[in-house]
What does this fold into?
Amino acid sequence: MTQLPAELDTLLRGHCRLLAPGASIDPNALLTSLGVDSLEIIELIVALEDTFDISIPSEMLTPQTFATPATIWHAVEGLCAAGHSLNGAQSR
It folds into this structure.
């Protein structure tokens, strides 16, 4: 099972309307089953970029990328490793 970092867990909790307080987030649960709607996905994208200091390229803004907490973390982790900073340039 994919372990979500605390920062992502905190961000997701703010958007998962159907998640019981104190319940753990299943990394493989569909975001829709957690109560995340399309507007909240947009808010989540902005929060991810701010929190992880990344820029999510438009080609990654797909339902597949934002299907589950695990797919989101896979994308964020890859962007962080590749050095995709918010100013659009790759660092290093």
